Fold this sequence. Notes:
Elements: H1 2-10, H2 20-32, H3 35-53, H4 55-64, H5 77-90, H6 92-99, H7 102-105, H8 114-124, H9 128-150, H10 157-175, H11 183-196, H12 203-211, H13 213-216, H14 226-239, H15 244-259, H16 268-272, H17 281-288, H18 293-303, H19 310-320
Amino acid sequence: MATKSLLYVERPNIFWSSCATRTINLMLESIGKMKKFKSTIDQAKALTIFIYAHHKTLSLMRKYTKKRDIIRPGVTRFASNFLTLQILYEKKDQLRIMSQSDEWEKLNPVKKTVKGVQATATLVKPNFSNDVALCLRVFEPLVKVLRMVDGDIKPSMAFIYGEIKKAKKDTMVALGNVDKSGTIYNSIIGLIDVKTKDRLDCPLHKAAYFLNPYYSYNDPSIFESEEVMDGFISATETFYHGDYDKQNQVLNNDVHKFKDQVGHFSKMVALAGCKDFEFSPAKWWGNYGTQVPTLQKMAIRILYLTSSASGCERNWSFFEGVTF
């Protein structure tokens, strides 16, 4: 953060963005610490630790799950927990049968230890699978965003702001009748907003959201949002810092052609081409933004950005293992 401030003095036209993978993982960890979900996660952890700590329990588990492990690595520690919960829920019937089998009963003295008794209780507990299912429904919207920002399939800057907004809506649907008063939902949204503030809601993120027709052409109210428009204006002033003529061109001319779908933006093929989530916003601007070259340059540069540093961190970890 200190380096960022120093860089702004020398290069006022640069953008700074927090690592989206790190930020979303912090959101998930905070939600996972809520009383409603923490006990379920802790029980799942204790169960998996017990099973993997003894070769007999591990062998028995693999027999009943048809050699399917219940621990899988994810892009972050919490993503790994989520994948484990998924498998526990997927294999709940087989694991329950295992816990009631003669083979499990014969696991003495391992089964009679405190951890063994707790593991057995977890497996036979009627509400455990329901609690796991609720955790999965609540965490899945953000985990989807986590996978997107950590992937190498496409630049994610164009989608991060919009997908976090979508994740909030999906979380409300996931809670359904479980949270009739809305207390849990409001707590979750509060945690997401705290982690998002000044990290994933900067002018750069809002400008990318504004310029991505997948969102703005399918929901024109985005163009009327004061918060989003303020972010776009600020991003324009930074991108063309000190160049008033280009700022004027973008804000007083080019952006209106984009908003009003004038020229190439009005073509049926252009409108059809931005309805698929898998499309490339930057390439779309390369095709249809030629009549507004000043805005086109800014849009392409922003929409081609990634939003996560996790790929770099993996490379650093690899390079640390290289000896000369």
